[in-house]
Amino acid sequence: MDAITSLPQPAIVKPKRALPVKMTHAAGEAAADDPPVLHAAIGLAEQIRAASDEIERGRRLPPSIAAAMKEAGVFGMAMPRVWGGPELDPLTQFRVIEALAMADGSAGWCAMIGCDGGYVTAFLDQDVARAMYPDILVATAAAATTTGKAVRVPGGYRVSGRFPFVSGCQHCEWLWAGCTVIENGVPRVDGNGVPETRQCLVRLSQCEILDTWHTTGLRGTGSNDVVVHDVFVGQEHSFTSRIRSSSSGPGRFMRFRSCLSPRVLHRH
Q1: Domains, the chain, ranges and CATH?
Q2: Whole-prediction pTM
């Protein structure tokens, strides 16, 4: 018995955990199975580079470049599949933006801002949101900082204010405008005395664009100030930025959008 117990015992080998597959992608390149939007964005590089002088002189994307990006699906790349959109995952969106930014930094920046329509619509009733975007390829401008005022009126708000740094405003359909809610002439506050804010969606055609964008960096983004003069915004075209527990929109992408921004969590 002693001889048996003195024999070397077999080592206990723990099964190795499979290492996660590390996916890498060469910047500005696409594989055959990558989404058409990525291929189209890469295909725009030469056209964008050729317009670089015009972009700098105009301090905005030329209409031809903005239209080409729209038709490529760049501004609609975050729209949900249930609407007929591509609903690209975040990594692929980054690759689209990267490809455009390699051609011109301003084009990449405007792509990043312009696809916000696919995010802000997660806050809204989906029938209302879909009706707002009959063309899901249009660009959306963002001025989420609360520099405006939303005066509470029956059915919604009267929105006024000056909103700075509204990139790509010349070729956008909607403005996402951050406002402080005003009721009975004073800011509305919660139980802790914190002013209530509201994000209101206003058509760019109802706004005034001021020629304020004079800069040396990202010169072609057209990030001008935009003024809203007492425009009525229905309750259904606005949402609160208070964090809730889950997303209200349909589909997988609507759910993981809440992981990308604390604002995109639940409609009020």
Answers
A1: 139-244 (2.40.110.10)
A2: 0.82
Cα torsion 105, 262, 124, 141 to 10°: value is -20
Amino acid at 232: F
C-beta separation of 231 from 204 below 8 A = no
pLDDT in tens, the chain (268 residues): 555 555 555 556 565 666 555 567 888 888 999 999 999 999 999 999 999 999 999 999 999 999 999 999 999 999 999 999 999 999 999 999 999 999 999 999 999 999 999 999 999 999 999 999 999 999 999 997 899 999 999 999 999 999 999 999 999 999 999 999 999 999 999 888 999 999 999 999 999 999 999 998 999 999 999 999 999 999 999 998 654 433 445 444 444 444 444 333 333 3
Q: Is 128 exposed, middle or buried (0-12, 13-18, 19+ CB in 10 A)?
A: middle
Residue closest to 241 by CA, chosen among 184, 206, 165, 190: 190
